[in-house]
Design a protein that fits this description.
The chain is α/β, with parallel strands linked by helices. It folds into 2 domains: about 5-40 and about 80-290, Rossmann fold (3-Layer(aba) Sandwich), CATH 3.40.50.410; about 45-80, no CATH class. The chain has helices at about 15-30, 65-70, 105-120, 145-155, 165-175, 195-200, 245-260, 270-280, and strands at about 45-50, 75-80, 85-90, 125-130, 180-185, 205-210, 225-230, 235-240, 260-265. A 5-stranded parallel β-sheet has the order 4-3-5-6-9, sandwiched between helices. The longest helix has 18 residues, at about 105-120.
């Protein structure tokens, strides 16, 4: 399925209103089928049983304890702590690659916007962080307008700079509350980034969406493609059949799987919603409650 079936265009070509309309539709589509996920949002869990007090609702009765003790007991629950979602968007030069009308950066912005809005709807504060040398970051918020404002510089600006995903994750190890959700949207071209992700996953719940363009692995049969070497501005003309990053892509997938890190590949020429829905909906229910 082509990504344009979702009506997506480069985000910087749209007005703020049109961008908002499309993001809300993407979040609606993404929410369908992920309601049972523990990806974001508060929940409730059993805390203890206590003796019944007149006025307690019948539906809260703990019948097992009541039967065992012979005295009426009710169940008490406590709210789970809200999970803060940090959306780390790679803004490096290599993210500007795009053999379709959308670059990897464009797709990352659409995905971050949809996931961030979904988090806010489920009462989880969301924060956008640009993993580049300009160090753009915003405080977590439950306000849709504030979230959009924090995303705006990435949406309309052209961030072609040095990758700092690893450095950003190192900072989140200190700054973010323990067990925060950290969603990395990057092509993972930075040296040492996999080790940084593994380290961050020891303190936080790290998920990785790896952006990929078909020209990078020779999947695009269209002659030659103009490209820039990652993290430098060295221009080159390459045959699109050349499997530039195929081995790296396979190796990354194996490393992520071996480390128990949720990892999905999002291509610039494919529909993102089915991939994101499957990625977010299949998460283990106990993972977010780890201590």
């Amino acid at each position: 399925m082509n990504i344009f079936a979702e009506g997506l265009r480069p985000p910087d070509e749209l007005t703020h209103h049109d961008f908002d309309v499309i993001v809300r539709r993407l979040a609606d589509d993404l929410a369908f089928g992920t309601d049972a996920s523990r990806f974001v949002g508060p929940g409730i869990e059993f805390a203890q049983s206590r003796p019944y007090v007149p006025g307690d609702p019948i539906r809260s009765m703990d019948w097992k304890v009541t039967g065992r003790t012979g005295k009426l007991h009710v169940k008490e629950y406590e709210a789970l702590k809200r999970i803060t979602a940090y959306l780390v968007v790679d803004t490096s030069t290599s993210m500007s690659v795009g053999s379709t009308d959308l670059t990897k950066h464009d797709v990352a912005i659409w995905a971050a916007a949809a996931v961030g809005l979904l988090a806010i709807r489920r009462f989880s504060p969301a924060s956008v962080i640009a993993a580049g040398s300009r160090n753009h970051r915003a405080q977590p918020t439950l306000s849709r307008n504030e979230f959009y404002q924090s995303l705006e510089p990435l949406r309309v600006g052209r961030f072609q700079e040095r990758t700092c995903v690893g450095e950003t994750l190192d900072q989140l190890m200190v700054l973010a509350p323990r067990n925060s959700l950290v969603l990395v949207l990057s092509d993972l071209h930075e040296d040492g980034v996999i080790d940084a992700i593994k380290l961050a996953n020891q303190r936080h719940d790290v998920m990785v969406i790896q952006l990929h363009d078909p020209s990078e692995t020779g999947d695009l049969r269209a002659g030659f493609v103009r490209a820039a070497e990652a993290e430098t501005d060295h221009r080159m003309l390459i045959g699109s059949r050349t499997r530039i990053h195929a081995d790296r892509l396979d190796r990354t997938t194996r490393e992520m799987s071996g480390a128990g890190i949720d990892h999905a590949i999002l291509r610039t020429d494919e529909s993102m919603i089915p991939i994101l829905r499957n990625f977010l909906g299949d998460r283990p229910t106990g993972r977010m409650a780890r201590s």
